[in-house]
Please model this.
Amino acid sequence: MTLDSEISRIEAEMRAGGWATHTSLRRELQAWSRLAAEVGAYKATIDDYTNDVCSRDYIAEFAVAASAETREYIAGEVAAADDRFRALTVADAEGLVGQYYRIDDMDGWWWRRRPAGGPLADYLTGNAIDLRVVGYEFPDAKPDGVQDWDANWLLVEGDVRAHGTAWTFRDPCITTWEARALLDWLRRAPGSEDSIDFLEPALAFRLLPGRDDGITLEVALGDGACPVVEHGRSRGKPVRLAIPLSRSDLAALADAWERQITRHPPR
Model:
């Protein structure tokens, strides 16, 4: 039996066994190679990801049914993609992927790894930030002039979860005027101006296009807001986290921020 005829036979048997009619060895090899190349910056959803990983299941099941010669051919075809996938993923010791897809003990090693970086990695590790305005830096300051900086610095507290690490910061990093500018930006965005930063480097925000009309809020945390050490980074080097949002989420975020700053108007 030739290689092509054996491949055709096994493909037909696998379709009869429950695999979709559009599947084929060549298609799944290409899908796996594409995923291995993109996994480090995977932008689609976790459901898309688990569907893509199933291409490796197909290849493994195909190899079990194949002759030694065909298994050798498959091993040669899949080796480079396997190596790329391992290089761009980390061991999923927390079972994060398994929270979205049933993974059994007999499933392949590729199900026990997750992206090391990129939007999906951020989503899986549960990036989140909760910001609160806790008061003026100098609550007893008497405004001196039209724009008194000392009287208008706000003390911001934040709970952050990013890249598997959690911390809290408290820093006078934004003024009352900047707080209002942030609200205006959240109300206006996404628009022509997709980022905003402030005089102090602790906080900066950027909006990126997401999937299915969603958006991604990228938060940069600098000196005053990042931890003393975060994956080898010293204080002052920004930590970035990406948070997927719907447009209604963004509107709710603006409403919550407005409630925060209304209690602390410019002085």
Notes: The longest helix spans residues 46-65. The two ends are 85 Å apart (CA to CA). The chain has two domains: 3-116, 126-262.
